[in-house]
Amino acid sequence: MDPLSDQEPSATSVATPAEVRTPAPPKKRTRGGAGVEPLKPARRSRAHLSPVIVLVGDVVAMLALLPLTKPAYAVLSALIALTVLGLLRTYRRRLTLSALDDLPPLVIAVALATLGRDLLFEPHVGLLPTGGLALAQFGLLMLGRCVTYALIRGSRRRGTLSARTLVIGGGFVGARIALNAVEHRELGLEAVGIVDDNPLPETRSLNLPIISQIRPLSEAITALQVDTVIVAFSEVRDLDLLDTLRTCDRLDSELLVVPRLFELSSLTGDMELLRDMPLTRVRRAPYRTLEWRLKRLFDIAASASALIVLSPLLALIGATVWLSDRSAPVLFRQRRIGVDGTEFTVLKFRSFKPADEHESETRWTISDDARLGRLGRFLRKTYLDELPQLWNVLRGDMSVVGPRPERPYFAAEYAAAVSHYGARHRVPAGLTGWAAVHGLRGDTSVRDRAAYDNYYIENWSLWLDLKIVLHTVLAVLRRTGG
Questions:
Q1: What percent of the chain is modeled with pLDDT above 70?
Q2: How far apart are the C-alpha atoms of 105 and 86, rounded to whole Å?
Q3: Residue 135 domain-assigned?
Q4: DSSP labels, 285-298
């Protein structure tokens, strides 16, 4: 269970000079152009269909192998090649489409498909030998890519498959990005607005809507049905911009960032090229991936199995708690903040009886409370009081791994005092988490906890979850709770 138990930082631990910043009064901004006008709702583009067209083209190319070999050979080759191309991330929306750029992944996919086919079947002796069949497969894939890319570029020029694009920053770089989008429609970017309060005259001359930074970015993205957000240089501080850009995580929009000193940047696998300007593609939010769905399946299987296996223990603990004090319920219920700031009721075995609901909502630690008897201390020390939260996981209120849920009273205080604290609510709360297994519990830095939680979210993987679970098991065995 969670090595944190419920030992969160006390209210006083938040109000430290290193962590609390008094919010400065908002700066007066010049509301420019269309920024103060209501944004007109727009229809969503079909840019998301571009990868589907490429995939269909590859499938058709693979089916063209059927007359040249046995159906089983062709089907297996297609499955292996398409899987490899998917893992190599060739089926994603890209600005620059070039069959020559795809040559290395196509060679890898064909080589692995040939190897896998020959390992599972006898070497091919049909109309073409193994080597000839591989060359035919590669040639058909290259031809398919050339045809589909030509179709996509033509559709982009007509505006059919263009991604509705919002540019943040109205300086020279932002204007250059918007101009490239307007003049080179084959890139598939339809500039629908520029976010800036004081754009340069060159930017205004593009006749694009200028959206004030006073307006929430989420509102602009939703109203304009934005597919892609490109971050150029602006007057907004990077720290302030970070929270704003995390809005894109919860919305279905891709995020590209112009790197600092972009003139010296070289292209890597996570970058795009907008004419002569490199753009860094920010990693897709984890909860928008297939792996995240597997995480939920794991939560359901783990919590259901644990509830069944531990049911005798749960019944024994419940009976013991009831016999120790029959005047209070066996289960302790408390409001907590979950994903997207929604409230839910967390369940625990009662370890002591609070004076009233206000004390339950606003008092932080009870480790030294005289009302915490021997049974309560034992339950908290062994984390057995946390077992009912398996029901929260099964219901979907929580996950096995995630940021620990906070009470609304403290969550509001921390969000006002600690930068980026609210960003930890982008994913469901967890029984244990990255901050917990690094000792950030009790009267520790709230700022550090928020940083660790946000690191977990932005670097999430199934392997990271497994690491956290293993660390938690060690903490439970060592009985380092409170």
A1: 78
A2: 10
A3: yes
A4: PGGGSHHHHHHHHH
d(C-alpha 109, C-alpha 87), whole Å = 10
Cβ–Cβ under 8 Å, residues 331 and 388:
yes
Distance between CA atoms of residues 198 and 295, nearest Å: 44
Show the tokens assigned to 166.
Answer: 């919002």
Residue type, 189: L
The structure's pTM equals 0.67
CA gap 481, 385 in Å, rounded: 11
Residue 7 buriedness (CB in 10 A; 0-12 / 13-18 / 19+) = buried
The number of beta carbons lying within 10 Å of the beta carbon of residue 473 is 13
What pLDDT shows up at residue 419? 79
| Residue 15 clears pLDDT 50, i.e. is over it | no
- Backbone φ and ψ of 399, nearest 5°: -120, 165
Query: In terms of DSSP bridges, do strands 398-401 and 429-432 run parallel, antiparallel, or are they unpaired?
Result: parallel
348 and 398 in a single domain? The answer is yes
Domain range holding 265?
A: 33-45+162-282
Across residues 30-46, what is the average pLDDT? 54
More confident residue, 381 or 53: 53
So what's the pLDDT on residue 17?
Answer: 32
- Same-domain check for residues 314 and 175: no
In this structure, which amino acid lies at residue 325?
D
